[in-house]
Amino acid sequence: MQIHATVDALRASLNQSRRAGKTIAFVPTMGNLHAGHISLMRQARDHADIVVASIFVNRLQFGPNEDFDKYPRTFEADCAQLRDAGVEVLFAPTETDLYPEPQTYTVEPPDIQFMLEGECRPGHFRGVATVVMKLFQIVQPDVAVFGKKDYQQLMVLRNMSRQFMLPIKIVGGETVRAEDGLALSSRNGYLNPTERAEAPRLQQSLQRIRQAVLAGDKDYAALCQKASAELDSHGWQTDYISIRRQQDLMPAGPEDRDLVIVAASRLGTPRLLDNLEI
Ligand code: PAF
Questions:
Q1: pLDDT digit string (tens) for 165-175?
Q2: 107 lines ligand 1 (CB under 6 A)
Q3: Are 272 and 202 in contact (CB under 8 A)?
Q4: What's the rounded mean pLDDT across residues 57-63?
Q5: Same structural domain for residues 33 and 139?
Q6: Ligand 1 pocket test target in 52, 107, 132 with most atoms within 8 Å of CB
Q7: Is 4 a catalytic residue?
Q8: What is the pTM (predicted TM-score) of this model?
C-alpha cells in the first residue's frame, strides 16, 4: 500500500493511475478503523480498479467542547487493516498539509445542516462538507463510499455532489453491527463494560418502533417519545429519536412511505448514533 501525506505526492500517484486507465473509488475516514470501515473498503473495491482511503481527523467538524483532542488515533493498526483489505493507496495528511492556511472558504449546506445532528452539533456539517469537498478535489475519485450509519452525513454529501455536479458516484454502505446489534463506531471504545452491555438497547428501541409502524401505528411522535423515555430510564440522555422521510429527512407524516428512524443518545461519555429504515 502506498502512503502519501502530501497533496502533491498523492496527485502524482493518482494521475499516473488515471493515465493507465484505472478508475478510483475513495473511502474517507477519520481513522481508528473497525469492521464497518473495512466493509466500506470492500464495497469500494466492487466499484473501481483502485481503492484510495484517507485518514484525517478533521478539526473543522468538531465543536469546541467535543472530543477532537481525545479522538482515538491508531495509525499503525489502521494501516495494517487497510493493507489486509487490499487498499492500494492511503492519503494521510497532517493538518498543515490539508489546511496550509485558515479555511475561510467553506461549503455551507442548506437547512438540513441545522436539524437532528446539526441542531446538536452546530457547524458540524459545514466542517464535514468542506473537508469532503477538499478531499474530492484532491483525489478526484469516480466513486466515493460513506457509511449509512451517519445517515444525515450521507444525505448532505450526496446532495452536495449532485448540486455541484461533481462527477462522483456516491455509494451508501450498510451499517456493520456487533452480534448483539450495536452499530460499530470508533466512539464505542469510550464505553465501559457496563455501558457496553447496555448499548444494544438503542438498536432494540428502533426495532420496536419499526415493528409498531409496520403494524399500523401512525402516532410517530408518541412512539418516539416512549422509546426516548425508556432509554433515559436506563441511564441514557437522548438527544433525538425521530421518524423521518428517507428522501429528505423531513419529519414523516402518516401518508409518507420509505421512512427512516434516526436516533442519537448519550450513554456515559459517548453519544451513540443509529438508524433503521422502514
Ligand atoms: O464519517 C467520517 O468519518 C467523517 O465525517 C468524514 C466523512 C471522513 C469527513 O471527515
A1: 999 999 999 99
A2: no
A3: yes
A4: 97
A5: yes
A6: 132
A7: no
A8: 0.95
